[in-house]
Amino acid sequence: MRRILVLALGLALILGAGGAAQAARLNWAGSLTTTTGDLPPIYITGGGVATLNGSTGGVPAHLGMIRLAASRGGITGTATITEFTDPETAGNGIAAIILQGAGATGTLGPISGALVSTGALTMNIMPVRGIAKVCLLSTTCTDYIPLLLSQQTGTMGIIGVGVGGTIVGTSPGTGMIRISLQAAPWTVKTATAIDQTDDNTGLSAFHNVTRMGFAHGPASGTTSTAQPSGVLQIVTPNQVRTNLPFGSSAKVATIAQILIHFIPEPGLLLLIGSGVAGLALLGSRRMKK
User: Fold this and answer.
1) Which residues contact 284 (CB under 8 A, 6 or more apart)?
2) CA distance 98 to 143
3) CB of 170 within 8 A of CB of 143?
4) Is the Cα torsion angle 46, 57, 225, 161 positive or negative in sign?
5) Local structure of residue 170 (DSSP, 8 states)
6) pLDDT value, residue 53
7) How much is the CA Rg of the chain, to the nearest whole Å?
8) What are phi and psi of 114, to 5 degrees?
9) Distances (CA, A) of 103 to 99, 192, 196, 223, 280
């Protein structure tokens, strides 16, 4: 009995030490999903280490602030759409859309305060780096319209997805084809963009497209998001316009969302697993006696 109690106490100390060690930071895994109009969603995945509630924030706790730094990992990768059912997309000679994206450094908060009905993120800037290639005529993408997801303005400013402002991509050479994207900062609440459709009679209809942000801890609790198994989703609505022949200047809704899942440190998982295995072994020995 004494051995079991000692090992149980050791396991409790391991858990306590693990919680203290990650008091200001948590590992996370996540994905960036982008949905444009009625095209299939494309997503890239990744993970890293997030700083929570400043440098002295405790775990578990309310998630007040989260900072993601590109130097500590992030979401990065390439995703491609080649199967289009929209006749306007194919009619405009678009053969594929390739997203090469990566998360940049940014800070978001106050998360808990923004969840209330009157709250809002006052820190809401986190750029998405990379490029969206609208491939023309061929899926090999030798000819494409480049749309930088974030662009430098002046000496210090940045505009783009996850920040705000209008970014523009034009076809190389002639610049006759133009795609512009009106971006917006991130929100933890509901994001709304407008999608314009044509019923082939020349009449346009406008539809609101929404995605919801959220934050919750294990078992959907809302008071302890800042701990392993906590989940955060942030969203940003973007509006696309083009001068392509079909649907010229039509509005196309593009909504991006980042889903972050906080996970335990690998070393802590190993320690916990060893402790549980030890308890099971001792229990088994006692039963044999």
Assistant:
1) none
2) 12
3) no
4) negative
5) E
6) 86
7) 24
8) -75, -15
9) 13, 22, 29, 27, 42
What span, in angstroms and rounded, lies between the C-alpha atoms of 289 and 287? Answer: 5
What pLDDT shows up at residue 178?
86
| Cβ contact 233:16 at 8 Å | no
Measured in degrees and rounded to the nearest 5, phi and psi for residue 88 equal: -65, -40
Instruction: Please tell me the predicted confidence (pLDDT) of residue 267.
Output: 44
Beta carbons of 161 and 181 less than 8 angstroms apart? yes
Between the CA atoms of 214, 235, 77 and 253, what dihedral angle is there, to the nearest 10 degrees? 140
Residue type, 109: G
Within the chain, which residues score under 70 in pLDDT?
A: 1-23, 55-60, 86-92, 155-156, 198-203, 221-223, 244-249, 266-289
pLDDT at residue 115 in the model:
85
Nearest CA-CA partner of 234 in 147, 139, 161: 161
Q: Which helix (H) or strand (E) holds 229?
A: none
φ, ψ at 38 (rounded to 5°): -100, 20
pLDDT of residue 154: 75
Up-side HSE of residue 128: CA atoms within 13 Å toward CB? 34
